[in-house]
Write a structure and sequence with these properties.
Elements (H helix, E strand, L loop, with lengths): L1 H14 L12 E3 L15 H4 L2 E3 L15 E6 L3 E9 L19 E7 L7 E6 L5 E7 L3 E3 L7 E7 L3 E9 H6 L8 E10 L7 E5 L17 E5 L3
Parallel strand pairs: 1-13
Antiparallel strand pairs: 2-3, 3-4, 4-10, 5-6, 5-11, 6-7, 7-8, 9-10, 11-12, 11-13
């Protein structure tokens, strides 16, 4: 009976997606490079090959789905640089009319917070063409859509297998929102994949499991701890 119970536990873990994932480190260390890059959607450069890489996005709410997104990032002298390489055979991209359009289709997302309290955090949602929705927020789901990142460069490119997003945010901007690179800060890394069945058919992928019944990235458990890697 004990063996049966153990086997059942393993099956439950596998089906929930937890059993096939590597244990995440307590703090995600982000590489630092002295050289700057050109933001053009070309992610074949040497800097990206030496960047911090994450390939483990998954959906706790749709554990049978598997995601092949590759997220990379690194700090340079002036910027936080990042890129997403997304495999998506069923792109949903609406004609851009305003920022809210971005929230109605396929996209990747980065959320920044000085701490896990989420008293103030800052969100960047990017569609396959590089259009963005950015805003400031407070726990719980108090959104200020009038707020914007002022110093960011972002390019999106649709590819034969999905899309690529490449971007950077100036370190001076991160400092203004109280991100201290000498200390730990919090980061959310997400993806929305519209399946095309209807506007509510979305598979939500996350770096971490927020442990919620329904998809929700606007809570502390959806954020991971990050820090710039020391030279």
């Amino acid at each position: 009976m004990r063996n049966v119970n153990f086997l059942v536990s393993l099956i439950v873990m596998f089906l929930s997606g937890e059993g096939c994932r590597l244990k995440q480190p307590d703090t995600f260390l982000i590489e630092y490079h002295t050289s700057e890059i050109q933001i053009d959607g070309d992610i074949d450069g040497m800097e990206w090959s030496r960047s911090t890489t994450l390939t483990d996005l998954y959906s706790p709410w749709a554990p049978a789905e598997r995601d092949s997104t590759i997220f990379r990032c690194f700090f340079s002298q002036k910027y936080f640089n990042f890129c997403f390489e997304v495999i998506d055979r069923t792109l949903t991209v609406l004609e851009y009319t305003d920022e809210i359009t971005v929230a109605k289709g396929d996209r990747v997302e980065l959320f920044f917070s000085p701490s896990s309290k989420l008293s103030s955090y800052y969100c960047l949602e990017i569609n396959p063409n590089g259009y963005i929705l950015d805003y400031k927020a407070q726990l719980y789901r108090k959104f200020n859509y009038l707020w914007n990142f002022n110093h960011r460069d972002i390019v999106g490119k649709i590819t034969s297998t999905g899309y690529v997003v490449e971007g950077r945010i100036s370190l001076s901007e991160l400092k203004k929102i109280d991100i201290d690179l000498d200390k730990v800060f919090c980061l959310g890394i997400f993806r929305a994949d519209f399946t095309g069945e209807n506007e509510n058919s979305v598979i939500w992928y996350s770096w971490l499991n927020p442990h919620t019944k329904d998809p929700d990235f606007h809570i502390p458990s959806a954020f991971g701890k990050c820090k710039m890697k020391q030279l």
